[in-house]
Amino acid sequence: GWVAALAAAVLPQWRQSSYAGDAIITAVGLHEGLWMSCAAQSTGQVQCRLHDSLLSLDVHIQTSRALMVISLLLGFFGIIVSVVGMKCTKVGEEDPVTKSRIAGAGGVLFFLSGLCTLAAVSLYATQVTYEFFRESTIPINARYEFGSALFVGWGASSLSVLGGSLLCCSCPAKERRGQQYHRQAQPSTARDYV
């Protein structure tokens, strides 16, 4: 989930040119992402340009950028905390309850990371949908549709939320803490032989 979120944040295909409408223009395809905008020509040549100014960007792009950076940071720390909380690592090996709680904390970080990715991608998709269906003089084939990075982002958020939920389930309940299970001796019904 974290690797997919990283790929979604870096990819410039958050929105792409729409090929709907009567006059389809296939010579140049435009892609825009959080960090750059690209133009792909039919010859295979791609030219990309970074966004010039942070403050001149639309609010939804700035918000999506911030949410994706927060998501990646939470996921990175979630990986570190989860590795420490795994049963196969030697760190904190003396107390299994504490180790499982550490793994549960990593799960919470993954869950929050997935929610941030989901919020960023959904906010951007909402803006693309609004601009596509808005009444304007721009022809429909000059508008933008969902890009592939949005779908990668939705998949990444699903994986992070699922992985975080599974790690949270590994945290033991308080009443099981320190509880030992001993096998009780059962009375013998057979004769004892000496």
Automatic annotation (TrEMBL):
Keywords: Cell junction, Cell membrane, Membrane, Tight junction, Transmembrane, Transmembrane helix. It comes from the Eukaryota. The keyword Cell membrane applies. GO terms for cellular component: bicellular tight junction; plasma membrane. It is a multi-pass membrane protein. Pfam families: PMP22_Claudin. One of its GO terms (molecular function) is structural molecule activity. It is found in: Cell junction, Tight junction; Cell membrane. The chain crosses the membrane at residues 66-86, 107-126, 146-169. Its main location: other. PROSITE patterns: CLAUDIN (PS01346). Gene3D superfamilies: 1.20.140.150. InterPro entries: Claudin (IPR006187), Claudin_CS (IPR017974), PMP22/EMP/MP20/Claudin (IPR004031). Belongs to the claudin family. Claudins function as major constituents of the tight junction complexes that regulate the permeability of epithelia. This is Claudin. It comes from Dasyornis broadbenti (rufous bristle-bird).
